[in-house]
Design a protein that fits this description.
Blueprint (H helix, E strand, L loop, with lengths): L10 H7 L20 H24 L4 H12 L16 H14 L11 H4 L40 H11 L8 H12 L4 H22 L12 H4 L2 H12 L8 H19 L5 H21 L7 H10 L7 H22 L12 H22 L1 H6 L1 H22 L4 H20 L3 H12 L7 H15 L1
Helix pairs in contact: 2-4, 3-6, 6-8, 7-8, 8-11, 10-11, 11-12, 11-13, 12-14, 13-15, 14-15, 15-18, 17-18, 17-19, 18-20, 19-20
């Protein structure tokens, strides 16, 4: 018996099914998932699954022209989400993950959306879009009060959901060798990036990071000096404009999104610095100093919400990121050595204030010790003398942390895998200090042990054992 499949819906019906569902709140809400009912999300998942199935059937028929395919690509791109963005829309088990994978798989069969498709969404937005043709900076706009203010921008309403994802996909689809389409790219990009709402700015940061990655990848190709890999960020002044916006973002007031915003801003700022300024140039040094002052030290002092603040955790994790694109990879040995004295005091402070037996504090402590170790190891290869200068303060911080651990073990009977891992990380830091100064282990660490042998039992032995193992394996 033959199975008769229902015909695919017309293109207009498919496009309507890809529009944002009515239950989604305005895009500027900080926690939109809290206002969405599970049943609403489940019904939308079912509708989206049917729509994706029909789109696959339509593409198999090969009956669409290029313009129709681009319209489908625009609708699908709304739901090609980034982590930390609209990922919550596809949570709830394997079904949500399968929908995300199906969206991305269908997009591979379609051309990228056009940047022109975003013009109606952002058409009524206040400047920027208005960009000076000479300086490429946003023009000033008049100040109005609420009574005469224009209607809310369309992209901030329900219909605007996912427009930033469309922008990312359209940008990724641009030919790397063709000149950058600034008139179509800048208005939506700067509108998102300069919006005062944290949730909107976070999405703008995602677009900026996509753009910077595209520029870096294109710059590795030959004969691409006029396209995305060329010096357009410097020549047009757009790079400096974005850098100023990133610097302002580092001072956003504390919100629940601050850790996510800070993580994206730190990496985007560092990445843009490498694209704009030559290695060892004065401007590159000044940009990195600004990043450390505002993004690292400023975060620790003003925006931690206590030493266990999420922003401080974000900074510690970012500083300890390894690889060529990480903080240490970009600065190199000399650069890390130069800023060591600025970073270490901030990193050492929580070691003396956190409670090591607290499950919440333990991951933070491990992150701090890992970052301190990476910075010291990198500086040790360049300037052992510089590391030796800080051995006293580092030993003081580690000693206080050891006392807190021992007191927890005695009073609360705590001795779990996390505490053992913290101790091992402390031994690794002490080994680096011993390599920076030949008398550190026996004299300085030994002097600390003599103050209270019972309290510091295991500190010297663990460090000595690890040092012997490392020497034997090298």
């Amino acid at each position: 018996m033959a199975i008769i499949l229902s015909p695919s819906p017309p293109l207009e019906t498919l496009l309507l099914s890809l529009l944002p569902p009515s239950f989604l709140p305005p895009t500027e809400e900080e926690s939109p998932s809290s206002s969405v009912l599970p049943i609403e999300l489940a019904n939308w998942h079912a509708l989206l699954a049917r729509t994706l199935q029909h789109i696959g059937m339509v593409l198999d028929e090969e009956s669409l022209d290029m313009e129709e395919k681009r319209k489908l690509s625009e609708g699908l791109s709304r739901w090609s989400v980034q982590e930390g963005g609209e990922g919550w829309l596809f949570e709830g088990g394997g079904e949500g993950r399968e929908l995300r994978e199906e969206v991305d798989a269908l997009l591979l069969r379609l051309p990228p959306p056009s940047l022109l498709s975003l013009r109606p969404v952002f058409a009524s937005s206040p400047p920027p879009p208005a960009i000076s043709t000479t300086s490429f900076r946003p023009l000033a706009r008049p100040v109005v009060n609420d009574s005469v203010a224009p209607d809310r921008e369309p992209w901030k309403e329900n219909v605007g959901w996912g427009c930033w994802n469309v922008l990312r996909r359209a940008m990724q689809g641009c030919d790397d060798k063709e000149p950058v389409p600034l008139p179509m790219l800048l208005p939506p990009l700067l509108t998102l990036l300069d919006d005062p709402t944290p949730s909107i700015r976070l999405r703008g940061l995602g677009v900026v990071r996509t753009m910077l990655n595209k520029c870096s990848n294109a710059s590795n190709e030959r004969e691409n000096s006029r396209g995305w890999g060329g010096p357009w960020l410097v020549q047009t002044g757009i790079g400096e404009l974005i850098m100023k916006s990133l610097s302002l973002t580092l001072h956003l007031s504390s919100t629940s999104l601050s850790p996510l915003i800070l993580a994206s801003t730190l990496q985007a700022h560092l990445h843009l610095t490498t694209l704009l300024y030559p290695v060892n140039s004065k401007k590159r040094t000044e940009s990195i100093d600004e990043l450390i002052e505002k993004g690292v030290v400023g975060t620790w002092v003003y925006r931690t919400g206590g030493e266990e603040g999420e922003c401080a955790r974000t900074v510690s994790k970012w500083l300890g990121t390894k690889g060529e694109d990480g903080f240490v990879g970009v600065l190199g040995g000399l650069g890390v050595t130069r800023v060591l004295g600025t970073l270490l005091p901030s990193l050492l402070l929580p070691l003396t204030t956190l409670t090591p037996t607290s499950p919440r504090s333990q991951p933070f402590l491990l992150s701090l010790l890992s970052t301190i170790l990476l910075l010291l190891q990198t500086s040790l290869r360049t300037s052992p003398e510089r590391v030796a200068v800080w051995r006293g303060k580092v030993l003081s911080g580690l000693g206080r942390l050891w006392v807190a651990i021992r007191e927890g073990e005695v009073v609360e009977g705590e001795d779990n895998a996390s505490l053992r891992e913290i101790k091992q990380a402390m031994f690794e830091v002490l080994v680096v200090l011993s390599k920076s100064h030949s008398e550190f282990l026996e004299e300085e660490l030994g002097t600390l042990i003599e103050l209270d042998r019972k309290m510091f039992v295991g500190l010297y032995e663990g460090t000595k054992t690890l040092l012997v193992e490392l020497d034997a394996s090298s």
